[in-house]
Amino acid sequence: MTLLNPYFGEFGGMYVPQILMPALLELEKNFVDAQKDINFHKTFFNLLKNYAGRPTPLTLCNNLTQNTKTRIYLKREDLLHGGAHKTNQVLGQAILAIRMNKKQIIAETGAGQHGVATAMVCALLNLKCRIYMGIKDIKRQHPNVFRMKLMGAEVISVKNGSGTLKDACNEALRDWSNNYENSHYMIGTAAGPHPYPTIVREFQKMIGEETKKQILEQENKLPDSIIACVGGGSNAIGIFSEFIHDKKVNLIGVEPGGYGIKTGKHGSPLQYGRTGIFFGMKSQLMQNEEGQIQESWSISAGLDFPSVGPEHAWLKSINRAQYVSITDAEALDAFKILCKKEGIIPALESSHALAYALKLMNMSPEKEQIFVVNLSGRGDKDIFIVDDILKKMEKKHESISKSF
Amino acid sequence: MNRYQKVFEQLSKIKEGCFVPFVVLGDPSLEQSVKIIEVLIKNGADALEIGIPFSDPLADGPTIQKANLRALSQKNNFFQYFKVLKNLREKNTKLPIGILIYANLIYNQGIDNFYLQCRNSGVDSVLIADVPIEESKIFYQTANKYKINSIYICPPNADDDFLNKISLYAQGYIYVLSRSGVTGTENNNILISKNFIKKIKKYNSLPLLQGFGISDVIQIKEAMLSGLSGVICGSAIINIIEKYLTKEDIMLIKIKNFIKSLKISTKLV
């Protein structure tokens, strides 16, 4: 019997091999106990404040919105130590692991931000750490691989399947099946079997709590829309959670549209997937007619996942949140604009959320509206990818010019 | 009396353990897979465990994962899988046939529809690798509706609560894990203690089959002597398939010889 409800509506659950059930129940029990323990909260908030650098600012972007009546604020998770919101929940899970007397951490990573955050706290708290990463992601996110190794993590290259986050997740779960007695599996997003979606949301909800306080201070009212990118969905659920009951605030999740939905190369299970069971949970899923899991695609390795956290599937099913998609090209444009206009290099993940905010703004420039975009991470890790793409685009452009 | 009960009863009379080979349907191709299964049946399989290929078999180790991917590369579909299973049933009326599958494949085609097709194809049991007993209610109820046995896994560290629970649900046999982790033959330390087996038997009268890491005759003899009813052997067979992928004749002979030797070792006298 679980202590908490493992489901969000029909989504969620614990779809794992039987061998893992004791590990999940042990984790849930310790999480529930920790939630009631003042010392746990003190330790957590002390680390958030003095190690990670919370609270993060809420920045108004005046240059982006010139000649419109839109006000866009960025919730600056990019300024957190480690460069992304991932640090929040990793600190929570690490002290939970210590509470469970687990000395080793298993993790998976896509873009490497969760891997970096995990390596960071493992170094800080003296935990042994091994991180599974798809071979394709290792190539496209080399700076983060280097960071992880610098901080003492063992990075294990996953060659199975598509060699991306999905396969790294499977491999990490396999490792955990074998080693749960002395290892904690630090899932990087609000997905996977119960209790992870709940744990990750609770350890990310300060993003929303701070945002609410800050926007009320600066605007004296709540925003019209909160916009966040959705891969697994942790930064989005972190900022949404505080506003779920404020029905007038639109909650907008932005999935990666990749090369365009029609090409099939995307990562938008909420809009274009079907309900299914994968990675320990029932949620929306990219799958073929036979129920085999399909490979997702995004320019951003951090969004390249064929499923999504179950709470998002539920929020969509009850029409509380709206989910849209932004293509690679649109995200890239937003990336460049933010660099140029505001002097902030956003992660390619967050660029999807910003791109949708700009799209909404440009559709109704006369409308008075306030948007908060969750800038979930900084883009230093992505500059080489962007550089490559821009160079390729320039070459293509030159060859077209020559042919005329 | 269902097919499992009959087989276990017969084997018990002649003091033999139940030998259950596991292969993935469609590995390396559907045609070859049928030939392999025929070799298994002719050379000592007392029951069959057939894996339905899935893209993300996270309960399985690299050997079975590769078998799944090889099978999937053939682009077969469920219609074909059920057709093969039905043919198998028609040719082997007494042999218990179980399938091992991942939840999404069942969910995707509709739970009711899936179990209906199992019944129509003569499948005796279904084991869902990523559905623990705690999540199994809807699958279990539908399986019962179509008289399909639900197979459950008993981990090596199961406590009294779990043993009590599994005794209420388990049908056919109980799949006792040799160890934690995923399938594969890398780890040879697979002896289940006699005390643990006694403890499971206190709660349950169903036959116990040991799985995970079974790859040689000594292990099987030990399993038989410790009070288990039989063994399930998968990765070791699939290793042979993988090794002789392009040499079908040799592959079938190697499997035949391997299966014969394992089956003989289930004999207690």
UniProtKB/TrEMBL annotation, chain A:
Keywords: Amino-acid biosynthesis, Aromatic amino acid biosynthesis, Lyase, Pyridoxal phosphate, Tryptophan biosynthesis
Protein name (Swiss-Prot/TrEMBL): Tryptophan synthase beta chain
Modified residues (N6-(pyridoxal phosphate)lysine): 86
Catalytic activity: (1S,2R)-1-C-(indol-3-yl)glycerol 3-phosphate + L-serine = D-glyceraldehyde 3-phosphate + L-tryptophan + H2O
Gene assigned in the entry: trpB
Stretch forming the signal peptide: none
Family named by the database record: Belongs to the TrpB family.
Pathway(s) per entry: Amino-acid biosynthesis; L-tryptophan biosynthesis; L-tryptophan from chorismate: step 5/5
Claim: Amino-acid biosynthesis is one of the keywords in the record: yes
InterPro entries, sorted: Trp_synth_b_CS, Trp_synth_beta, Trp_synth_beta/beta-like, TrpB-like_PALP, TrpB-like_PALP_sf
Domain Tryptophan synthase beta chain-like PALP: residue ranges: 52-373
Record EC number: 4.2.1.20
Subunit and interaction comment: Tetramer of two alpha and two beta chains.
GO MF entries: tryptophan synthase activity
Cofactor: pyridoxal 5'-phosphate
Functional note: The beta subunit is responsible for the synthesis of L-tryptophan from indole and L-serine.
GO CC entries: cytoplasm
Gene3D superfamilies to which the protein is assigned, alphabetical: 3.40.50.1100
Pfam family, one: PALP
UniProt KW Nucleotide-binding keyword: no
SUPFAM superfamilies per the UniProt record, alphabetical: Tryptophan synthase beta subunit-like PLP-dependent enzymes
UniProtKB/TrEMBL annotation, chain B:
Active site, renumbered: 49 (proton acceptor), 60 (proton acceptor)
Gene Ontology cellular component terms for the protein in this record: cytosol
Catalytic activity: (1S,2R)-1-C-(indol-3-yl)glycerol 3-phosphate + L-serine = D-glyceraldehyde 3-phosphate + L-tryptophan + H2O
UniProt-listed Enzyme Commission number(s): 4.2.1.20
InterPro entries referenced in this protein's UniProt entry, alphabetically: Aldolase_TIM, RibuloseP-bd_barrel, Trp_synthase_alpha_AS, Trp_synthase_suA
Pfam annotation, one family: Trp_syntA
UniProt keyword Calcium present: no
GO molecular-function term, one example from the UniProt record: tryptophan synthase activity
Enzyme class: lyase
UniProt keyword annotations, A-Z: Amino-acid biosynthesis, Aromatic amino acid biosynthesis, Lyase, Tryptophan biosynthesis
Coiled-coil region: none
Gene3D superfamilies reported in the protein's UniProt record: Aldolase class I (3.20.20.70)
Top-level lineage group: Bacteria
Record pathway: Amino-acid biosynthesis; L-tryptophan biosynthesis; L-tryptophan from chorismate: step 5/5
Family under the similarity heading: Belongs to the TrpA family.
Purpose of the protein: The alpha subunit is responsible for the aldol cleavage of indoleglycerol phosphate to indole and glyceraldehyde 3-phosphate.
Binding partners and assembly: Tetramer of two alpha and two beta chains.
Protein name, per record: Tryptophan synthase alpha chain
